[in-house]
Write a structure and sequence with these properties.
The chain is built from six helices and no strands. The chain is mainly alpha-helical. Helix 2 packs antiparallel against helix 3 and helix 3 crosses helix 4. The longest helix is centred in the middle third of the chain and has 20 residues.
Amino acid sequence: MSNKKSACDTANATSTKNNKPDSIISSATEKIKLCNEKNLKDHKSKAILEPVKKMLCEFSEQNEEFARAVTAAENLENLIDEVGKKLPAAVSDLDVYQQIVGKIFPGAKVTFTMQIHMSEYELEEPNVAEQKTDPVTLDLSNLIDW
């Protein structure tokens, strides 16, 4: 299992005045953390709140532009309530996340990847010496002067 902490676990409240990526992510994370179940009206919204908060923190950590959109969103609790009220009795996590993300950043898409690991050792992060590097991709058309 990864030892990497999510933005929700590690963020400190900072000002967005300097507009540095870390402060934008921290601001988004703080806004997400302030979402409270007590302010939600729908029982489905209350059920999805914690997984949605975790997802929003992870997405904010992955993409500064998304973090800015979270910071700019007027009221995350109302947004979660709006999505929660429209949910059917059974729905996938991916559908919920796509709806929430679509409300925060129209046009954004959520993708989902699953992997099987046959033992707990496959989940451990490799040592720095053992890490594999990604292959380098060269576009040979850049070398040709047209």
